[in-house]
TrEMBL record:
It comes from marine sediment metagenome. It is a multi-pass membrane protein. The keyword Isomerase does not apply. This is VTT domain-containing protein. Its main location: membrane. Keywords: Cell membrane, Membrane, Transmembrane, Transmembrane helix. It is found in: Cell membrane.
Length: 203
């Protein structure tokens, strides 16, 4: 899986980094914790520019946050929770997930957008409460971009610095990255089946 992701990033360049990070924020097929370090690794090999990789990843992350922001702004909390209860299982999202993101936002205010972009469990849905309260778009973009830039830069730099240890890193990360992707798929299938057929009791 390590080699495969490296091949994809090498072949698709900045567009591929942008697209993968955009998808990761809407429906996470591969987590940014794998995407950006491997993109940084490709940059270290001289195939891409380090700063270009960080900017492409940050842009994809921010653009990927916008659909959830607009969903919150257009639908509102009550309608969005009803929608998630009926159809959210396809995204393994339930009303409790929206409640969790809303509590996080209410506790930290607009800073929740910044810190939420650094947290895997919150990153995707933190845009929802921001949209629900109609946080001004310039403020949302500022905090979302700042958080995404920091997260993306750290992950990319980690991969960039590991380039000299390619063989060792590949030996360890190949099985680990494959295991992570398999685990994500299994978790997705489990949550989909549980939410689809097991029902959901709102708290």
């Amino acid at each position: 899986m390590f080699d495969k992701i490296v091949e994809i990033v090498s072949a698709s360049g900045y567009v591929g980094v942008f697209g993968l990070m955009l998808l990761e924020n809407i429906f996470p097929p591969i987590p940014s914790e794998l995407i950006m370090p491997l993109a940084g690794f490709v940059a270290a090999k001289g195939e891409l520019n380090l700063y270009g990789v960080v900017l492409a990843g940050t842009a994809g992350s921010v653009v990927g946050a916008l659909p959830w922001y607009y969903a919150g702004a257009k639908l509102g909390e009550a309608r969005l929770k009803k929608w998630s209860e009926r159809w959210g299982y396809w995204l393994t999202m339930c009303p409790d997930d929206i409640d969790h993101a809303s509590r996080w936002f209410n506790r930290h205010g607009k800073l929740a957008v910044f810190f939420g972009r650094l947290m895997p469990a919150v990153r995707t849905l933190i845009s929802v409460p921001a949209g629900i309260v109609k946080l001004p778009m310039p403020v949302f973009l500022l905090y979302s971009t700042a958080g995404s830039l920091l997260w993306t830069a750290l992950l990319t730099l980690a991969g960039f610095l590991l380039e000299s240890q390619y063989e060792k890193v590949a030996d360890y990360i190949n099985p680990v990255s494959t295991g992570i992707v398999i685990m994500i798929v299994l978790i997705y299938v489990y949550r989909l089946l549980r939410l689809r057929f097991g029902g959901h009791k709102q708290t």
